[in-house]
Amino acid sequence: CVHQSGVPTSGAAIAIPAAHQRDGDAHARPDRLRARGVRAHRQGAGGHLSTAPEIRRVETSKDLARFIDLPYRLHRRDLNWVPPFRAEVKKLLDRKHNPFFQHAEADYFIAERNGEVVGRIAAIHNQLHNDYHKDKVGFFGFWECINDFEVAAALFDTASAWVKTRALDTLRGPMSFSVNDECGLLIDGFDTPNSIMMPHNPPYYLTLMETAGFTKAKDLIAMEGGSLE
Question: What is the predicted pLDDT for the residue at 117?
């Protein structure tokens, strides 16, 4: 799914569910994960640390390398995650060579705890999208995070503040960078590997996003077919 914030970019990051909706979603499945209702996923990066995360903008080649590296550590125990080539990811993020930046801008941010990267996000302004659709949408993409709402909220708040400074009133994602790239959040089919340009993430990502106040903007459906012969 592609999600967007259920509150203005200047609003609170945490949504309070109704009393009869334990998970804050009237259509939630009975086994929907809850931010504090299950034991933390055993992650490949970070862990249970109490210090608040520090959010830093990617400024150097070393920062960029750490930004790129996070999902390789975070998902290395997930046998269904098919990692992209690092060189291709680096090329995609290159503002000088990716034609996306002829009509857009973006900044990359990493979340650190005790010197270790535990989350990342890109804040994106796709001017061509807004000119065509006549709206004021900012996007976030390349979002990866340990199972810790404090880290996720800090990343979303950073992206929200970034798009607000550009007079945008909506935060939508994940879009990495646009529909021409990898977009959406996996919410079902976690037992199957991802295909090219398709997202693959652990189930707790949805819990973190919904706890932060995001609601579904659109369904994206992937279908696997047999031979055409």
Answer: 97
